[in-house]
């Protein structure tokens, strides 16, 4: 079997995958299931043979998130899990910087990235040379990098953070001023939550920067008692209109804690599908901004990477050594 073959939907495959379909039937139309089910069956079988584990970000589509992933989460959760798994092979169903973070923490393991082109506009916005220039302009200020950065940038970083722990990480340094990169909006959100002076870099997420405060206020006017839950990569006027701001895992957690039956998740739109499966009584209002990078990952590509054990994430050992400290310092906080 090769990844160019289309796998067949047989009665055996239908029976093997019935429990998965029962889980996702509210978000995957029945007519689409025959194109997913054979891959789900093949991936779950091959995963066991290869002693492999699949880590999937909260933005992956429901057939990946609910049907083949062993662990789902935000960047921090995936980094933590990546640091603790026993499997010999880790498949990252997410974007390139997430797979690199996993490799940095597990240099001896095979880390597979089903499509190496799955990047991130934030990671692409800054280079290691840019970080060195920032340090020259602000001597003595430590560098805090969002994990949405390349391994080269992490190697120039004092401590990493995610959207789930950014304020905590900045405050843990006990200094008056930090260089915070590369997301200008996460930086301004952190600045609004702390007295530490934040020097930002002008990067942004191409998905979250498209939301506007006017759009969110429009939804609030159209739906009574709407709970607005936003990711801190959104611009400040969006965050001001939100009832809760947090990482993707924090947002999901908040859906379970709030009491409204109408929720707007101001983030990548596959996440609403994934969460809707767990909260059938909640109506999710879905402005659909998709991350084109996350959407590069598909079931056929995951299967192909498990079959060939390619493409692998390879990082210069010297960069791994220098980058690991910044990720481990974050995990220790
Ligand atoms: P989280 O760490 O909150 O999952 O965010 C990652 C990301 O890429 C958001 O766009
Ligand atoms: Fe990067 Fe934005 Fe996509 Fe997240 S949603 S991976 S920050 S481009």
Structural notes for this entry:
Helix 3 runs parallel beside helix 15 (299-308), helix 5 packs parallel to helix 6 and helix 6 packs across helix 16. The longest helix has 17 residues, at 33-49. The strands form 3 sheets. Strands 2-1-3-4 form a 4-stranded parallel sheet, sandwiched between helices. It has a 4-stranded parallel sheet with strand order 6-5-7-8, sandwiched between helices. It is an alpha/beta fold and 333 residues long. It contains 16 helices and 12 strands. The protein has helices at residues 11-16, 18-24, 33-49, 62-65, 75-84, 96-105, 128-137, 151-154, 166-172, 184-193, 213-222, 236-240, 248-257, 270-278, 299-308, 317-332, and strands spanning 52-57, 71-73, 89-93, 110-112, 143-146, 159-161, 177-181, 197-200, 227-230, 244-245, 262-266, 283-285. 48% of the residues are buried. The structure holds 1,3-dihydroxyacetonephosphate (13P) and iron/sulfur cluster.
């Amino acid at each position: 079997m090769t990844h160019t073959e289309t796998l067949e939907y047989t009665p055996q495959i239908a029976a093997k995958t019935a429990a998965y379909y029962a889980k996702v039937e509210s978000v995957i139309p029945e007519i689409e299931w025959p194109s997913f089910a054979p891959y789900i069956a093949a991936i779950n079988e091959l995963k066991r043979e290869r002693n492999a584990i699949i880590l999937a970000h909260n933005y992956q589509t429901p057939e990946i998130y609910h049907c083949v992933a062993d662990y789902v989460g935000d960047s921090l959760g995936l980094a933590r899990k990546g640091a603790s798994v026993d499997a010999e092979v880790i498949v990252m169903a997410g974007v390139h910087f997430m797979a690199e973070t996993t490799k940095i923490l597990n240099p001896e393991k095979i880390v597979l990235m089903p499509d190496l082109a799955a990047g991130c506009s934030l990671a692409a916005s800054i280079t290691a040379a840019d970080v060195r220039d920032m340090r020259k302009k602000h001597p003595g200020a430590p560098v805090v990098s969002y994990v949405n950065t390349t391994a080269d940038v992490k190697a120039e970083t004092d401590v990493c953070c995610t959207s789930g722990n950014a304020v905590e990480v900045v405050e843990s340094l006990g200094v008056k001023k930090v260089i915070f990169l590369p997301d200008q909006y996460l930086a301004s959100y952190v600045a609004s939550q702390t007295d530490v002076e934040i020097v930002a870099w002008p990067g942004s997420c191409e998905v979250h920067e498209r939301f506007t405060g006017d759009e969110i206020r429009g939804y609030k006017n159209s739906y009574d008692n709407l709970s607005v839950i936003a990711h801190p990569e959104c611009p400040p006027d969006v965050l001001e209109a939100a009832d809760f701001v947090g990482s993707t895992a924090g947002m999901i957690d908040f859906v379970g804690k709030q009491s409204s039956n109408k929720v707007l998740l101001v983030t990548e739109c596959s996440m609403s599908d994934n969460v809707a499966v767990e909260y059938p009584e909640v109506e999710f209002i879905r402005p659909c901004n998709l991350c084109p990078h996350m959407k590069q990952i598909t079931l056929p590509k995951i299967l192909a990477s498990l079959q060939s054990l390619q493409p692998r994430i390879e990082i210069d050992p010297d960069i791994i050594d220098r980058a690991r400290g910044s990720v481990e310092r974050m995990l220790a906080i």
